[in-house]
Each structure stands twice: as structure tokens, then as C-alpha cells.
Amino acid sequence: MPSGVRARVLPASQRRSLDDLAQDLDLSHGDTVSKRSAFWTMLTLSSVIAAGGVLTDSTATVIGAMIIAPLSTPIMGIALGSVQRRRTGSAKVVLLACALVIAIGAVFSTVLPGSYELLSNSQIASRTSPGIMDLVAALATGFAGAVALARRDVAAVLPGVAIAISLVPPLVVAGVCLGRLAGWLALGALVLFVSNLFALVFGGMVVFAALRHGGPAGREPGRPARRTYAAMTFLFAVVVVPLSANTALTLLLDTWTGRAKAAAEDWLADQPDASVTSVDAKSRTMYIQVRLPGDLPPVQGLLDRLDGQLPDGVPVVVDASRGRSIDAGRVGQ
Questions:
Q1: Residue 153 predicted with pLDDT over 70
Q2: pTM score
Q3: Where are the domains of the chain?
């Protein structure tokens, strides 16, 4: 970090000491028994709260779990240990914590009925399809959290950081999805968690290195080891590739749904008081919901209008407002 930026972002009068940071972020520093007891207790309780909030689709409950969850502590401990070039055991704690939270989510999934549709739950749907903007927001939040930890005068923003960068809820969602044998949805939730973990560690490494906290004697102070850079580069690739692919897919689906809606509106143009209420792409099928007082016009006219607008072979289902569902066929066939 350039010295001018460091002086403004981390004024010398407000920088916290190494001991202060280690006391807060390193579970192996100081009263380790009390620290670990508090960490595992609050992590378990926050996981249960998050699982309850996810299954009841309660945003307020999930936010409460975000504030209570202590998982960001060992994650930031990884960043501090990397800058100091010493092992703190934080990575092991994070891995065990992830396993615990996922297990709790899987256990809670057993209460769901067999016909439960996971994507009908907004808490699940919003955490199983992350995009590149989620990483951008996470990086900004990671820097905000690191600065709040490194300065004495802005610690009040930490609850906001806990809300902005979700850690426990994606792991709970991954557990719920695994419990329901929805592997791809679980993978999406895990990608979201890993992107948030990367953002916190990266932001912490940059900010803590700017504090010029030294490592053990004989080592260059304030700079992580080369293998740390290699690990972060690998983690970044693991995160950014699926996020970019999912973002591109989302944009493509938005384009296709827009074309399908325009074609459906043209198809119903001659029907009085008819309208297209929604168009959704689910499970490789285009669902077009319409509202009209009379009978539907021939669906072949819709397929003809969709030809060239959507890829050939895409199934089209028309849902009418009276509860009728018509399998219109496949585009281009």
C-alpha cells in the first residue's frame, strides 16, 4: 500500500498494536481455553439460528445469525498469521468450523418434506447462484473489516461487516442442499463462501501488511511468504472462474427470457385483455405465464416466434392464469 494512502487510511495515531490484533484474532494467543470455548459455543448457536432462519425463509433471523457468528475471527487470523509468517492454527479452525456448520445444515434438512422445492426459498436461491459482483462486494467488505480491526476508532462498523459478508448462512445452505442431495446447489453456496473467505483474507493481508507488523527474527517484516501468494492466487482462480461463468450464464438467461417475453407478447397481441405475467428459465425449460380471459391461441404460433430467438431444443411450457399448464413443445422442432 502506498505510504500516502496508508497514512490516510491507517493514521499512526489510530493504528492498533500487534498484541491487540493477536488478542482478538488468534485463538492460540492468550487465554486459549476461554477463547476456543466462546468461539465454538457461539458458532454452534449461530449455525442453529441460521439454519432456522434459512428453513423458515426469515431474513431477520439470518441477519441475527450473521452478527452472532464468530467465523470471521479465525479467517482474519489467517491473514494476520500470513503477514507475520507464523502458524496460528487458524486455517485448521476454519476447516473444522466449516464442517460443523455444514453438518448442522444437513441435520436440519431432514425436517423438510419430500416435495419441498429448495429454490422456492429466497434464502437458498439467493446463495446458490453467486456472480462476479458478489466477489466485488465481498472484496470491499473484506477491506472494510480489516481497516475496522486495524484502527481503534472505527470498530463500530464491524457488525455491518458481519452482515455484508455472509459466512455461516452459505455454509448452512450448502448443508441443507447436501442433505437434500442437491449437489450443484450446494456447490454454488460453497463457491459463495469461498469467495467471501478469499475477500476477507486478501483484505486482511493487504491492510495488516500496511501496518508494518514484523514477523519472527530474520524474516522480512510485513510481507507474506511466497507460498502464501501462491495459495491466494490459486484460491482466486478457484473463485473467479465459476463466478464469471455463472455471471455470463445469468446474463445469457436474462437475454433469452427477454426475447421469450417479447415473442409471447406478440403471440397474444390479437387476444383482448391478454398479458404475459412472467417468464422464467428453470431446469433448462422456459416457463411462460400468461393471463387471458379466453382460450389460448395455437401454441405453434409461439414456437414459430421463438425460433431463432432461443437455442433449438429448449422446452417451452405455457402456464395460464386458470391453472392450465400446456407443454408447447421444443423450439425449432
A1: yes
A2: 0.79
A3: 3-224, 254-330
